[in-house]
Design a protein that fits this description.
The complex is a heterodimer of chains A (142) and B (416). Chain A has 142 residues and is of the alpha+beta class. Chain A has four helices and five strands. The two termini of chain A are 25 Å apart. About 4% of the residues of chain A have low confidence. Chain B is an all-alpha fold. Chain B folds into four domains: 174 residues, no CATH class; 52 residues, no CATH class; 69 residues, no CATH class; 77 residues, no CATH class. In chain B, strands 1-2 form a two-stranded antiparallel sheet. In chain B, helix 2 runs antiparallel to helix 5, helix 4 packs antiparallel against helix 5 and helix 5 runs antiparallel to helix 6. The longest helix of chain B has 28 residues. In chain B, 16% of the residues are buried. The N terminus of chain B is likely disordered. The chains are: A alpha+beta (142), B mainly alpha (416). Chains A and B meet through strand 1, strand 2, helix 1, strand 3 and helix 2 of A and helix 1, helix 2, helix 6, helix 10 and helix 12 of B.
Chain lengths: 142, 416
């Protein structure tokens, strides 16, 4: 799950881009209650400065930003592929040790985050290949 | 088609399908997305049909109800809407609109009916999406509401006019008026009186045609709704994937940290400072749940409690490394071996230095055997280990160097 936020009590446009993680087998009510400590901050991603739309230098900068983001995520996900197949023993709260298979199964984010992470165009769906001029219709065949 | 495969970070993970990572999101898609658009349309709609006054009055006159916040201002007086307020709005908009559109005049009956049905379908869809458990029936209902919304939404199409469309419409109208003005000069005075009415009708008709031809509902949030039903079918209810917990987590995990810290290298500090707090809170929660179990706790749980969850090493004490002589260097041969500079070069440089820089009576003898016997000292740089911020056993080595006769950062002497 990732989300961008502003630091409110600051005149500058300081931003933080947080990635949280949580586990999938928590019950809904437990995870959504604020005191449950169910979500944990993992890293803060680098926030690139705002760019204008057209200039050529900015386009290069944009590419660099995307590459940086990709490298950061590679770093974050580095332990995952090894343990996804063989599992990893993890301490459980009731004194037992369980063999767990951590797999990334959902990414909760608003649309603009999805666009940034999946490297999409702004007006495309992150899930299917619907053409832009059919976004408003109720087409479900894609 | 839309995905650049090499670029997507999720494609490299095992057992992960990037397109399945997307989860529908009620907060951004419905509350802050479609409801917001819909309110714009409704506002334009009631203005067009002269019911704005009634709409505002009924909006303010809503009675209180448990779990429902009574809006204090009329709809148009609120400048910014939060997700929570939008949820509130979803509960009452249908009723307010129905009352505001009461007793339609003859020609208004059909548009009013269609608008109400459109709003109702969307509100119903939203309500159903919040169910915590679903049956095939409820999913079928949701699909039906969505279909209905898509069938009825055309009533609001004329309020989806973008600036570009508006500019085109204006341009065409001016063009027609110009042509007509030209024509009127050729027509007799008696016929002129009838023309303006025809003009206005024709203009309106053309405007409608253009607006309907050029405006569209093709924006992404409209489309994302269509994945809701399928998602429920495969992964369960939608509230489970709410983005709202992220917003809550910002408050405790980032913003509090940010307020307490000194803003130096803030990202690192925030990430480090929250970990211990989280651990303590988890511990408290564990103890709380054990307390609820009462006296029938098994002994190994108690034993487990005494054990610390992670092994803590005693902090490594790192002594300061001062500037000092290295023991293994005593003459030029040793120095050449350690530094990797050949003897010839050292001799040459030494002789050059002595010729250029030293007074005559202090010059070195230019003879390799004498030079070789000169005593050499190799000194270490002053290295000061400094604890990394908020870590017990990680040191950063800060190298110090002599600034010779210069003051610190070219400033005056310091008395500290």
């Amino acid at each position: 799950m990732s989300d961008q936020t502003n630091f409110t009590n600051l005149p500058l446009d300081k931003k933080a881009w947080a990635v949280y993680f949580t586990i999938g087998n928590l019950p809904l009510a437990r995870r959504n209650s604020p005191g449950s400590m169910a979500v944990l901050l993992l890293p803060l991603l680098p926030v690139p400065p705002k760019l204008s739309k057209s200039s050529k230098a900015d386009r290069r900068q944009r590419k660099i930003n995307a590459d940086t983001l990709q490298d950061v995520f590679e770093l974050i996900f580095a332990p995952l592929p090894d343990v996804a197949h063989v599992g990893i023993p993890i301490d459980c709260a009731n004194s037992k040790v369980r063999l767990c298979f951590p797999i990334l199964s959902a990414w909760i984010a608003d649309h603009m985050e999805n666009v940034a992470l999946h490297w999409l165009k702004t007006n495309t769906c992150p899930k299917c290949e619907v053409p832009t001029n059919e976004l408003g219709t109720n087409a479900r065949s894609y | 088609m839309n995905l650049g495969i090499g670029q997507n970070i999720f494609h490299r993970l095992d057992r992960v399908l990037a397109s399945d990572l997307y989860k529908p999101d009620i907060l951004h898609t419905i509350y802050l997305g479609l409801f917001k658009y819909m309110m714009d349309w409704i506002e334009a709609f009631v203005t067009k049909h002269g019911r704005l006054q009634a709409f505002d009055e009924h909006w303010k006159a809503l009675p209180p109800y448990p779990g429902f916040l009574v809006p204090k201002k009329a709809y148009r007086e609120v400048t910014q809407w939060q997700g929570k307020e939008m949820r509130n709005l979803g509960r009452c908009i249908q009723g307010v609109l129905a009352v505001a559109l009461r007793q339609p005049a003859g020609a208004q009956a059909i548009p009013f009916k269609r608008a109400l049905r459109c709003v109702r379908a969307l509100v119903d869809f939203n309500m159903m999406a919040q169910y915590r458990s679903h049956t095939p029936d409820t999913i079928a209902y949701m699909e039906e509401y969505l279909d209905q919304f898509h069938r009825m939404k055309d009533i609001f199409l004329e309020f989806r006019v973008t600036k570009r469309t508006q500019a085109k419409v204006d341009k065409q109208r001016n063009e027609i008026r110009r042509l007509r003005a030209l024509m009127r000069e050729c027509v007799a005075t008696s016929q002129r009186r009838r023309m303006p009415d025809d003009n206005r009708d024709e203009e309106n008709e053309m405007r409608n045609d253009m607006v309907h031809g050029l405006s569209h509902f093709n924006f992404i949030k409209m489309h994302l709704l269509s994945h809701f039903c399928d998602h429920i079918h495969r992964f369960g209810n939608i509230l489970m994937y709410s983005t709202e917990i992220g917003e809550l987590a910002h408050k405790t995990q980032i913003k509090q940290g940010w307020r307490q810290l000194n803003k130096n290298d803030a990202a690192c500090q925030i990430v480090h400072s929250y970990g211990p707090q989280h651990a303590i809170q988890m511990r408290l929660l564990n103890l709380q749940s054990l307390k609820n179990c009462g006296p029938n706790l098994s002994p190994d749980v108690l034993k487990h409690l005494d054990r610390t969850t992670s092994t803590v090493w005693p902090p490594v004490i790192c002594r300061r490394i001062w500037k000092g002589r290295r023991g293994d260097v005593s003459n030029i041969v040793d120095f050449s071996r350690i530094s990797g500079v050949s003897l010839e070069i050292i001799y040459r440089e030494l002789i050059r230095y002595s010729r250029h820089n030293l007074p005559i009576d202090h010059r070195l003898l230019e003879d390799h055997a004498t030079l070789r016997s000169l005593p050499i000292e190799l000194l270490r740089q002053l290295e000061v280990p400094v604890l990394t911020f908020q870590e017990a056993d990680v040191y950063e080595i800060h190298g110090a160097r002599s600034t010779v006769t210069l003051h610190f950062r070219n400033q005056g002497s310091r008395n500290d």
